[in-house]
Fold this protein.
Amino acid sequence: MKKKLTKKELKDFKKIVLKRKDEVIDDIQHISDDTLKKSQKEASGDISGYTYHMADVATDNYDREFSLGLASNERQSLYELEDALKRIEDGSFGICDDCKNNISKIRLKAVPSARLCIKCQKKREKK
C-alpha cells in the first residue's frame, strides 16, 4: 500500500492546496475588513453622537471576539496548507505521519492538509 503519488497527482494536489489557500486568505481578509477596520460605531450602524448601551457594547465586543477567533482558526488552516505545500515539494505528501501508509486520495481531496490516514486520525481522536 506504500505507493507514492505520481508527479501528475502531486501537481493536481498542489493546485487543490493553492486554491484552498487562496480561499482561506480571502476569508481572513473579509474577517479583517469586517472586524478590525471598522470602528465600534460603524460596526453597530450607529452614526449618532449618543453613548452606547452597555448591552450593545457587550454584544459588539462578543461579535468582535468571535470574528477574531474565526480569523485565528483560518490562520491555523493557512499554516497547515503551507505545510502541505512543503510536503508536496519534499515528496512526503499523502503519507500518514503515524503508520507511514498512504492517505486515501479521497481524503486528501476533502482535506488537502491531512497528515494522517482515517484510521490513525480516529485513533488520535479517541485519546
About this structure: The chain has a mean pLDDT of 83.
